[in-house]
Amino acid sequence: MSTDLASATDPDVVLVGGGIMSATLASLLGVVAPDWSVTVFESGAQVAAESSDAWNNAGTGHAALCELNYTPAGADGSVDIAKAETINEQFQVSRQFWSHLVRAGLTGSPKEFITPVPHVSFVTGDAGREYMRNRYTAMSASPLFAGMEHTDDPAELAEWVPLVMTGRRPGQAVAATRSVAGTDVDFGSLTRLQFAAAEDRGVHVHVNQRVTGVRRRTDGRWAVTVRDAVSGEERTVRTRFVFVGAGGGALPLLQEAAIPEIRGFGGFPVSGMFLRTRSPELVSAHQAKVYGQAAVGAPPMSVPHLDLRLIDGDHSLLFGPYAGFSPKFLKAGSMFDLPLSVKPNNLGSMLGVARTEMALTRYLIGELLQSRSARHRTLTEFVPEAEEHDWDMITAGQRVQVIKRDPATGRGVLQFGTELVVGGEGTIAGLLGASPGASTAVSAMLTVLERCFPDRIEAWRPALQEAIPSYGRRLADDPALLAEVRAQTMQTLELNG
User: Fold this and answer.
1) What CATH number belongs to 5-477?
2) Which end of the chain is less packed: N or C, by CB atoms within 10 Å?
């Protein structure tokens, strides 16, 4: 990777940000347009150091196997699994593409970025037990969730998740589902592997280079101004396509580009914190990822979970999240990021959310005021015999939640998800928001190709289908294809145990 800005030339494509999204788009362009010149600008000293870093994201490999906020219950008790199916489909697409990269020798061993870990959903109380039973009935009917197990037997649960069950009050109603098809994904490692392979085929990856300006030229191309973080030197390159995959930094750059499509969009930064333990005794007693239910009235980001993580060869457990607040849009950002993002065209959206999201405001204030002992008490609701001295607090990445204008009402709404913004007749695109984020990176970047290059997508389809056999089809509607791609990806990614 280069830190020399002088070597940057005018490429066909500029990718802003050195995270999983830009890495994935670079890999996809290598499949469909290997003759295009591609340049990546990352403001930090290395790629994958912000939201894609393994310690800065949950790393569950979001497949909707255990995340209860993707399967809401209706007033009649029925459970809607539509969002869970969509996310699982997207994750299957990612797995297929990662398998292609492994088969093509474009990454190292799959064990460097993905490992099998059971995913468990856990609830307490009579209402929770009924919900879990209804959820299991709905999900087990879908081929995407075949093999999911269900129990409300405390003895069986003690075998599945002993750390969660030991010391729990006798007679408490409990229930859970488990999928042994779950994974843990180190997106930092995956990002670095993809960029290394991209550089081998001629992609230029520049670090310590902050994009400070994006301006449309009269000839339709984009002038991208870049400042060297060390020397302060500036240079402008011209390109016909720009993708802004800069995490929280995407919003101000799209505003700088002055595309009409970004009008009305704002961002609200939330930082996440986790309790972590590396105790061999505790880690060995919890070989799973367990998701619970958020408290009544709490936002989706507050769903408690106890994750087994494998990072840099070491196992640890993370529990959280605990929310924090900083006006920065990136961990390495500026304290002025939030105020400078407020523009006349999004002020109404921002004020509208400030009025309507009082529950989020109260949640964040409560989180910020929590003492260490209060945070530990939250942990003991999940892990009854947790000892405070075994756990330390770490700060994860910044997440900038999307604020957008509701076209129906004109009011601002807060969106807990991702939003692709495309402008300039498809010559510029950017991704805003967070979660499920990295796990659905391939689907998100396929959407970039489809929306920005509609005149080329049919010619690219054979190459995309070779890399992603289910491209253009729904796996939920084709059990035979689902079985085929699932078997192939499990074998290629070495997920058979």
Assistant:
1) 3.50.50.60
2) C
